[in-house]
Structure formats: structure tokens, C-alpha cells
């Protein structure tokens, strides 16, 4: 039995571990999960769990990971926290018997995490990024707004580096932030309020001013083998909150996923986000990890976490990739647990 370690990462790891264990009927893999919180929900899904040091980062954290792999006799390491540095240290892990499954190298991970740099770099003819301009002060914002507003009726802002969509907001020209708040409108702020706020800041982190895409969003969970796409499962999100998602196996999205995997030599599971606008499909981002909706994606028929583990362990040659169930309506239902 091979010992597989998932270190601290996003909450989707719990679903991934459950999916692996459901498919691993011959019990070939023993799953170890760690987190800085001793009551992580993911611990309930794993065979074995342990608590990580709370504030350890950087190379010191990599050293701790090396020691953990030695002590726990880890055969395969699927890193979340400090994935880039761990990828750079693959040879050190291999020297002591641990194989590391990295989605990308550190340089690529840094690029994918910085949307301004990524948007300039990516080449995706079928779904290029939305038109955008970066800004770091009020003057740059005003110049960008005057330019983009001439071509797009609605603009939005978001940080160049962020997760979960934190910092995203549509700029509302007609109402103030107070009006929007009182009306319960989410993800919008008053343009004039935003301008006044920027005027009080001499500098701030890089922000993007972009055309707003008002169509359907697609979250695509993908599996790749060193740049070769193995499987991509697109979920079309409803425009209404709480109305579920649809497995929509679009040919153009499949092509885009393959091109992204090849361009950035992606490996294992990654997630690509797209959204439709008045000019068609546009790329939002690549997340070098499993999405929060990985469980819903796998209802389409392909158990991506298990396929990723087995493919990395034994190779993808001869591994059967099930046909996807197009048009399937999916959702998630929360249930209570004791930690």
C-alpha cells in the first residue's frame, strides 16, 4: 500500500480524498492529510492525519515537509501549501523515496497567480482574456477608465493577485456604495465613492480595470499529464444564485483547456475559469489546484482525483477515461459533521 500525503491546502481536498477512497476498492493507497488546524474537516476523509506547524513558511516549511516524508514514509506527495518551492525541491524528495506531483514549477505558479502578468502572457485565440488595464494610483485609474469606458458600457475592478474573487467589484455610475449596500446589491460599489477612496491612497497593490462580462461563467476542472490534456469537465454556472450547475462539454472549452495545459506544461489537476461576454467566451484565470466544485465535476463520470493519482503513480497508458455525461444538472448539499 502506497502512502499518499496531502498537506495544508484548500477545503476541496476533503472531497478529493473521499473520491479517491471511493474508487480505490483494492485499497492501494493510504491517504495522509495534514493541516495547521487540528480540527480540519479533511481529517474526517483521510486514513491518517497530523497537525502542521502553524506559522512555518518558505524553505523552512520545505525542510519540515522533507522530514515529515521521511518520518511517515510518504511515497507520493501532492502539495498545496508552498507548492512552488516544493516543486523546486523535487529531487530532494525523490532522493529519500518520495515522488512529488506538482501542477507546475514555481515560475509558472507565480505567473498564474498574477493576473496582470498572466493576461499579458497567455495566448488563447478562442477565449482571450477580457480587455483590461492595470493601475496603481488614481491618475492611472482615470486614464484607464476614460479609455475603456468608450468601448464598454460596464467596467469592473479586481486585484491582480487574489483568491475566491476577493476584491472584485462592478463600478456603478448611477448609485452610491451606501445605496447599493442598503439595497442588498453584492459585488458593486459606487464609481464616485471608489474615486474618492483612491484619492486618499498614495499607492496600493496592482489592480485591474476590466470590461465586465455579464454572461454565464464556466468552471473547468482539468487533468493533464505534463502538458497533455487527459480530461476536462466544464460546469456552466447559473446566472441565479442557488440554481445549480450544468455539465456542459463544449468543444471550444475542451480545445482551450488543451491549449492551456500545453502552453504552461500543466500536470495533475488544475482549474480554468471562463465567462461569456458580448464578444464571446473569455478566459478569467487558471487555478493550479482543484476547485471547490471538484465533487460536482466528478459526477459527470470521471473521478479526476483518483485518475490523477493512478496516472501519476502508474502512468496514463491503458488508464480508461470514462465518457462525460453531458447536460447533467449538479449541485452540492451541505451536511453537518462532528470534528
Walkthrough of the structure:
- It is a single chain.
- With 339 residues, the protein is an alpha/beta fold.
- It has three domains: 100 residues, Rossmann fold, CATH 3.40.50; 121 residues, D-amino Acid Aminotransferase, Chain A, domain 1, CATH 3.30.470.20; 81 residues, Dna Ligase, domain 1 (2-Layer Sandwich).
- 32% of the residues lie in helices and 25% in strands.
- The chain has twelve helices and 16 strands.
- The strands form three sheets. It has a six-stranded antiparallel sheet. A five-stranded parallel sheet has the order 3-2-1-4-5. Strands 6-10-7-8-9 form a five-stranded mixed sheet.
- Strand 8, helix 8 and strand 9 form a beta-alpha-beta unit.
- The chain is globular, with a radius of gyration of 21 Å.
Shape: globular
Q: Give the biggest beta sheet.
A: 6 strands, antiparallel
Q: Which structural class do the helices and strands define?
A: alpha/beta
> How many runs of DSSP E, i.e. beta strands?
16
The proportion of residues forming helix, as a percent range, comes to 25-40%
Rg, nearest Å: 21 Å
Termini separation: 27 Å
Q: What pattern of helices and strands is seen along the backbone?
A: EHEEHEHHEHHEHEEHEHEEEEHEEHHE
**Name of the CATH architecture of the largest domain:** 2-Layer Sandwich
CATH fold name of the largest domain, please?
D-amino Acid Aminotransferase, Chain A, domain 1
Amino acid at each position: 500500500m502506497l502512502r499518499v500525503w496531502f498537506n495544508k491546502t484548500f477545503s476541496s481536498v476533503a472531497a478529493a480524498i473521499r473520491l479517491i477512497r471511493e474508487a480505490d476498492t483494492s485499497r492501494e493507497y493510504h491517504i495522509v492529510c495534514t493541516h495547521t488546524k487540528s480540527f480540519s474537516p479533511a481529517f474526517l476523509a483521510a486514513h491518517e492525519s497530523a497537525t502542521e506547524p502553524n506559522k512555518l513558511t518558505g524553505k523552512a516549511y520545505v525542510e519540515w515537509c522533507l522530514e515529515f516524508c521521511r518520518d511517515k514514509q510518504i511515497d507520493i506527495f501532492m502539495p498545496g501549501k508552498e507548492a512552488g518551492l516544493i516543486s523546486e525541491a523535487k529531487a530532494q524528495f525523490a532522493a529519500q523515496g518520495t515522488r512529488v506531483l506538482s501542477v507546475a514549477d514555481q515560475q509558472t505558479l507565480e505567473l498564474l497567480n498574477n493576473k496582470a502578468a498572466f493576461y499579458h502572457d497567455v495566448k488563447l485565440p478562442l477565449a482571450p482574456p477580457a480587455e483590461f488595464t492595470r493601475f496603481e494610483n488614481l491618475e492611472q485609474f482615470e486614464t484607464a477608465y476614460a479609455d475603456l469606458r468608450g468601448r464598454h458600457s460596464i467596467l469592473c475592478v479586481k486585484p491582480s493577485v487574489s483568491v475566491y474573487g476577493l476584491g472584485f467589484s462592478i463600478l456603478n455610475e448611477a448609485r452610491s456604495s451606501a445605496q447599493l449596500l442598503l439595497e442588498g446589491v453584492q459585488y458593486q460599489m459606487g464609481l464616485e465613492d471608489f474615486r474618492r477612496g483612491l484619492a486618499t491612497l498614495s499607492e496600493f497593490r496592482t489592480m485591474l480595470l476590466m470590461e465586465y462580462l455579464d454572461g454565464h461563467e464556466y468552471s473547468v476542472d482539468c487533468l493533464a499529464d505534463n502538458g497533455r490534456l487527459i480530461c476536462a469537465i466544464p460546469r456552466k454556472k447559473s446566472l441565479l444564485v442557488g440554481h445549480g450547475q450544468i455539465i456542459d462539454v463544449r468543444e471550444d472549452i475542451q480545445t482551450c483547456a488543451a491549449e492551456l495545459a500545453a502552453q504552461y506544461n500543466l500536470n495533475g489537476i488544475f482549474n480554468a475559469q471562463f465567462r461569456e461576454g458580448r464578444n464571446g467566451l473569455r478566459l478569467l484565470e487558471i487555478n493550479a489546484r482543484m476547485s471547490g466544485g471538484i465533487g460536482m465535476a466528478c459526477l459527470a463520470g470521471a473521478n479526476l482525483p483518483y485518475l490523477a493519482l493512478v496516472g501519476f503513480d502508474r502512468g496514463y497508458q491503458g488508464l480508461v477515461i470514462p465518457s462525460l455525461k453531458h447536460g447533467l444538472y449538479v449541485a452540492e448539499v451541505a451536511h453537518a459533521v462532528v470534528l
